[in-house]
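User: Structure tokens for both sequences below?

Assistant:
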Amino acid sequence: MKWTTIHPAVLNLGLQYAEWGIAGGNARCTAMLNTFARVIADYTTPPHQTLSRHLTSVVSRHVDFLNTTRALSTSMKAAVRFLKHEISVLSPDLPDEDAKAGLIAQMRSFVEAKIDFADKAIVKETLDKGKIRPGDVILTYGFSSVVNKLLLKAHARKIPFRVVVADARPKFEGQRLLASLVAAGIPCSYCLLTAVPSLTAPRPTKVILGASAVLANGSIMSRAGTASVALLARMARAPVIVCAENYKFTETLRLDAFVWNELGDSEELSAAAATMPVTSTGGHVSVLHNWRDIASLKLLNLHYDITPAEDVTLIISESGFIPPSSAYMVFKEIEQNVSLA
């Protein structure tokens, strides 16, 4: 497919997605809508065309391009559906400039309501209901923007607690969360995913995780490694709390991570592997440096995994506290409210 008609801002955004310069469902969704606002601002309806029909095809073309740079997240798909719906209900009699201004305002409102306000509501509900208590040792994994906001706000409320940040290669996203928490003065420990079963001092009292999507059966799709953390927590009888905005709830059902997943670059695993000394040069090379020469070896770099609903104690969204078994009911209620709006 040729991308000669793609807006320069979208080309730049796609490059940032591909290089993981922008990562995380909320960050990617916000960046996409902000970029589409520029596309719409620069858009001109061709002669003998209507804005509502032609602009939809323009948006679809740009979405297809972004999907080639990196698979769209559940949150991004929800935002795209919202934008296309808003375009489809535009009155043909509305002047183009007014229509474009209205669409840009609607996209800004989406970010404010579905992400910014939602995160504030999740943080407030979690803290007001005492889900983080004095003396807690909280285990989290990777980086989640809403979990980061929650922990920073709990610290601002003078609640004494500790955080254990678990992480994994090749992205080591937990280091971003660790840097944020340490900068705020929150006592933290850092470990790799493989060390989580051995955690005894301090022993986590609860686990708080983010999500890429909440599936119809209450399972959680999140960064690969999350399912292991949740399973270990259940075995240790520590509650597992998942923070997820309403727009991440979906009617999609996946029983495991192999039904659908996003494949990462295999070379990332090679580059992040342990090293061994090279006596001839005195340097070190990855133990997987020659993996392509081994016919029977394939490196599989999956970005997501599926945490079963039985390993999740509670889901917290802006709608309140939700048991995993009610995830589909919440999705249908959200969809009904959108259709009535």
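Moving on to the next sequence.
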Amino acid sequence: CVDYRRLNQITTKDAFPLPRIDDIYDQLTTATYFTKFDFKAGYFQAPLDKSDRPKTAFSTRDGHFQFKVLPQGLTNGPPTFQRIVNQILGPN
């Protein structure tokens, strides 16, 4: 587990809105089809820019590593993932 609190403090926050659950339920009332997606590994499918990878570096007894994909714990993780989902599933 990597503690990203110091990195999160100096990160410019992404203001991308996350959906409100009551808005989602309102949209479901007019839906004809329902689908379930398993986004369990969703964060780990979002690539990190090469210049941002060193910011995620950590060490273990086995060596030094850095993430190539979006790890859990970064302040902009949820809005980044939501933006990707909207781009894939959105009406555009």
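User: Anything stand out in the second?

Assistant: The helical segments are 5-10, 21-28, 77-89.
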